[in-house]
């Protein structure tokens, strides 16, 4: 198998890389395991030096890395620059706070002294997706490395250049050899990597199908996992919402990263009293998004990352329309080279339709009309997914009360769903389990160890 870097805006094949043979993969894992035995004994202060240097490198090269993402998976370049700077933020955040997050915690017991210690466990395997090819990796790597673990990355097969660039960031930051390595492998080798004795845990961001497979193998090997899987986030607009803000933010929440985000707003659940007014404003906002060349700084929506993904998205739209929904805007791939799918709105979506139940991973908004707040909550929770969501109401107390009823890992009142190093991130239901970021994230892959002294 070869790992191919393909420009989704032009269809041009950029680079092809041969997959490592199994023997090379196992040798690298042995080397990373050996490196952990030294790395785990370093101080938080020493680890922080490398993470701060990595942050500096990321900021200095943000435009270069953004261009690489634009060429390799079609990310609009302005969003790419923001993504790289966010990676620097997470490195600096954990460099600053890891020591206090993992400090010994005293407890009361029958001993004269009882402590809970948080200690590194080994090598963390990260199976990462293409849609945020830098952020998803640094989101795991910064806390894992600061906790004293080593890391190996199995990146998506369509972003091999990003995968190698990330390893180079850590090399250039002076990180000791083999503390972080990129594995140039396809999905067929993942099971063997999980079986390796030095791999202590696995984190995966991707589809629920991929999550089931990887979590199943890790469970067989009794290894800890964190799964951040798909989402079909509800975006609830109540009758007292600021409709101008809800529509404008909603267009960005749906089409951020060209709609290819697990926490993008996907199901717009709007109460009847303001449905027509919201639809009018939302349609205008979607029409006003810049659509086209990802290297153009004015572009909001670039190409979809791969031809097969665009074809799948379009089939979901067609199936939903065939079931009785209305194609209100867009809904037709652009002719010519590249994987360009325009901002799209489906109205009249009801239970039983594809767009009601499935995740649409592209710039397609599903509008669902409900009679009131109670029905909005019921529809929001009528989903197998449970990642995030939004509630819009100018009465913030009401918005918070509704947010508490939504069955997801996070809800944002009067704002779009997003990740932030300071707050935990993750889902429930088939959107996964475990948490990343904040102090909750750094404690996922440590040995929570009781120390009892009489």
Largest sheet: 7 strands, mixed
* Helix fraction bin: 40-55%
Shape: globular
- CATH fold group of the largest domain: Aldehyde Dehydrogenase, Chain A, domain 1
Q: What is the CATH homologous superfamily assignment of the largest domain?
A: Aldehyde Dehydrogenase, Chain A, domain 1
CATH class of the largest domain: Alpha Beta
User: Whole-Å distance between the termini?
Assistant: 58 Å
Task: Please state the CA-atom Rg, rounded to the nearest Å.
Answer: 22 Å
Q: How many helices does DSSP assign?
A: 15
Low-confidence stretches: none
What is the residue-mean pLDDT, rounded to a whole number?
Answer: 98
Number of domains: 2
Based on the coordinates given, report the CATH architecture of the largest domain. 3-Layer(aba) Sandwich
Strand order of the largest sheet: 12-13-14-11-10-16-17
Say how many strands there are: 20
How much of the residues is beta strand, in percent?
15-25%
Structural class: alpha/beta
């Amino acid at each position: 198998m070869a790992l191919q870097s393909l420009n989704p805006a032009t269809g041009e094949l950029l680079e092809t890389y041969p997959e490592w043979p199994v023997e090379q993969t196992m040798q690298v894992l042995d080397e990373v395991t050996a490196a952990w035995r030294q790395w785990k004994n370093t101080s938080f202060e020493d680890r922080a030096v490398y993470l701060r240097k990595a942050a500096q490198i990321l900021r200095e090269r943000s435009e270069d890395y953004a261009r690489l993402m634009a060429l390799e998976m079609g990310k609009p370049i302005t969003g790419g620059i923001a993504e790289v700077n966010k990676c620097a933020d997470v490195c600096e955040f954990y460099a600053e706070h890891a020591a206090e997050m993992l400090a010994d915690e005293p407890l009361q017991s029958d001993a004269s002294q009882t402590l809970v210690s948080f200690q590194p466990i080994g090598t963390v395997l990260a199976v990462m997706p293409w849609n945020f090819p830098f952020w998803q990796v640094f989101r795991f790597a910064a806390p894992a490395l600061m906790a004293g673990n080593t890391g190996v990355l199995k990146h998506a097969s369509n972003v091999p250049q990003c995968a190698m660039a990330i390893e180079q960031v850590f090399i250039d930051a002076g990180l000791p050899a083999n503390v972080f390595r990129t594995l140039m492998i396809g999905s067929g080798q993942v099971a063997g990597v999980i079986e390796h004795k030095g791999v202590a845990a696995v984190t995966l961001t991707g589809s629920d199908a991929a999550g089931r497979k990887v979590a199943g193998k890790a469970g067989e090997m009794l290894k800890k996992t964190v799964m951040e899987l798909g989402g079909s986030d509800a975006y609830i607009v109540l009758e007292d919402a600021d409709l101008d803000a809800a529509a404008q933010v909603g267009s960005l929440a749906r089409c951020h990263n060209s709609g290819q985000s697990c926490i993008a707003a996907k199901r717009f659940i709007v109460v009847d009293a303001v449905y027509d007014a919201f639809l009018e404003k939302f349609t205008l906002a979607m029409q006003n998004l810049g659509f086209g060349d990802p290297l153009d700084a004015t572009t909001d929506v670039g190409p979809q990352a791969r031809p097969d993904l665009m074809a799948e998205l379009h089939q979901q739209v067609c199936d939903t329309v065939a079931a009785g929904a209305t194609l209100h805007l867009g809904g037709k791939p652009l002719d010519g080279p590249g994987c360009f799918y325009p901002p799209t709105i489906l109205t009249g979506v009801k239970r039983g339709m594809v767009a009601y139940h499935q995740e649409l991973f592209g710039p397609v908004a599903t509008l669902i009309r409900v009679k009131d707040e109670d029905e909005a909550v019921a529809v929001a929770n009528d989903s197998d997914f449970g990642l995030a969501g939004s509630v819009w109401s100018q009465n913030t107390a009401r918005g918070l009360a509704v947010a508490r009823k939504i069955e997801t890992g996070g809800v944002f009142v009067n704002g779009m769903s997003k990740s932030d190093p300071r707050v935990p991130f993750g889902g429930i239901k088939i959107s996964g389990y475990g948490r990343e970021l904040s102090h909750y994230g750094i404690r996922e892959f440590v040995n929570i160890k009781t120390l009892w002294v009489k």
